[in-house]
């Protein structure tokens, strides 16, 4: 079985190459806005719905009107059309579901940060990335690229540095089968509590870097907009954010790998993190915990290793006793579970993890829900 895997690396372009990369990014952003404008005008004035293929047919005409588009690889331009089409499909999907639609919007200078070679126009030779229309750029290959490279995406981060991400098809490498199973309850006091009693401490990376970030942001706010010093300080702020983001990602990868190596059946809460953050006093702490990222990483690692992962409904997992099924409401400040019916005592999070495990096993049909799991 083949799976998709991403490999990210840092680029070290020269000044000329940075200029060419930025020019390519600017052309892609202009094309995205132009195509979006065409769709809006076609619908408002002609009541027509332009498809992805309709707009791809217009690309040669646009190249004639704007010769600078010739400096961008043809498939990169086609990928911009595809990106806009996906934005509209997501918009209509949300409309049908009754969610907040979020109509595709025009992209400003700092709202478009990447472009993609979807099939060809790139190659990796030793420590260099060769890009069509741009040239060879030095790349830091800190690990070997596995499998077959399918796409190459270049991204400019907030601090002005360039990164490349390769999406590769690699053969899955299943780990030896195990009989172990685990339910995982994520939280704020502890990042995760496992149903067998193990805990994962919450690293709180944002809280640790908050003082340094506040100091840099305070300095930034005092500088005049448009000045060289403000741009320099803005990059320093962005680098602090990058460091915190990378620390979270690294932490999630390490903890997910440990869980996948030790358990065959993994059960996790299906949390709606965005809704939990809306108007919540703990919104900043929830964002810092990065539950969604952890779930995403754990999902693809489980698939690659041949493990079975399932998301379960989190309703009543905290209030229900994992031993007798008695439901009793608890306030958030109550960190201990003390069942009045059967007398079972445990930490609130451990009891929830045991409930998650039981619900997951019920869904699989391997073991019926019963006390003393």
Describe this protein's structure.
This protein folds into 2 domains: 7-141, no CATH class; 181-204 and 251-364, Nucleotidyltransferase, domain 5 (2-Layer Sandwich), CATH 3.30.420. Helices cover 45% and strands 21% of the residues. A 7-stranded antiparallel beta sheet has the order 2-6-7-1-5-4-3. With 373 residues, the protein is an alpha+beta fold. The two termini are 34 Å apart. The protein is globular, with a radius of gyration of 25 Å.
Percent range of helical residues:
40-55%
Q: What is the CA–CA distance across the termini?
A: 34 Å
Number of helices: 9
How are strands sequenced across the largest beta sheet? 2-6-7-1-5-4-3
Mean pLDDT across every amino acid position: 90
InterPro entries: Cas12f1-like_TNB, RNA-guided_DNA_endo/Transpos, Transposase, Transposase_put_HTH
Family: In the N-terminal section; belongs to the transposase 2 family.
Protein name: Transposase in snaA-snaB intergenic region
Keywords: DNA recombination, DNA-binding, Metal-binding, Transposition, Zinc
Brief overview, please?
The chain is an alpha+beta fold and 373 residues long. The chain has nine helices and 14 strands. It has two domains: 7-141, no CATH class; 181-204 and 251-364, Nucleotidyltransferase, domain 5.
Break the fold down into its secondary structure elements and pairings.
Layout: E1 2-12, H1 15-46, H2 52-65, H3 74-97, E2 114-117, E3 122-125, E4 128-131, E5 135-140, E6 148-156, E7 162-171, E8 181-186, E9 190-194, E10 199-201, H4 205-221, H5 228-262, E11 265-269, H6 273-277, H7 283-289, H8 291-305, E12 308-312, E13 336-338, E14 345-347, H9 348-364
Parallel strand pairs: 8-11, 11-12
Antiparallel strand pairs: 1-5, 1-7, 2-6, 3-4, 4-5, 6-7, 8-9, 9-10, 13-14
